[in-house]
Amino acid sequence: MPALSTDPLLVLIGGSCTPGGAALGAFASAVRERGGPIVGITAASAEPVESAQRWQEDFASIELDDTVFPTFTRVDKASDRALAKAIDGASAVFLGGGDQVKLVAELSGTRSETAMKGLFARGGVICGTSAGAAALTALTMAGGEIDVEGQLIEQYIGPGFGLLGYEAIVDTHFSARRRLQRLFVVIADHPHLLGIGIDEDTALVVRGGVGQVVGAGGVTFVDGRDSVRFDNAHDLERGRQLTLSHLRVGIVGTNYHLNLEHRELDLLVRGEASPHVVASYHPSPGTPRLEQRETDKA
Q: How far apart are the two ends of the chain, measured CA to CA in Å?
């Protein structure tokens, strides 16, 4: 069991990540910093063996050769012991995509889950993409969308692995699949949660309660904990449309940081001025805001 001296790191990827992209590259850099092997888990996939082979090829293409994807099924206790042993000797775990409910059901209560949490506690890296990212919060979400036949799939909220705290819940493939409405519904019904929507080929790299956005897209956060004044989330099963007032919604772009404890851009939490504010314009005291912005008109 290697001793890892650095802080634990979570890399949450919104799915569809390219091997040479910055999102998966953030995971690769963290692994190289620590040294040691990667253990991959594809239990979320409907075809776990084929998925493992594809990921093995992707990792090899970016020179992460010390990677293993042990065969795992919950009913096979020997495979659970073997996977747990591999994780105990690793510096990182990678969780592939598929179905987050299936992933949690497969690993929950196993030696492998205990080993993964132990690795994280001693400073390891845990990376999940798509379903793998969605499963890393205390609660995970699924459903709540229209299927190919035009039928609404029932919304599911259930347990996850709980490695990302801060009462957060993660949605993936966020912009590509237009999931803002789905996240609104979840937060309206569970206003204590912080909703985090991660775009494809984009990662939220979390260390010490602060997440940096890297990759091709952005991260959307939805917070209703202290702001919602009205919602009809409990009436939606009667066929009503969502009605909701006073959500806090923000978008975090590449290289900016989200403070998960304060649910705000980290630069604002630390009291820093935005680097994009025009510092050379100094209106006189009492000037109306509309006139202050007059110089910005096209």
A: 61
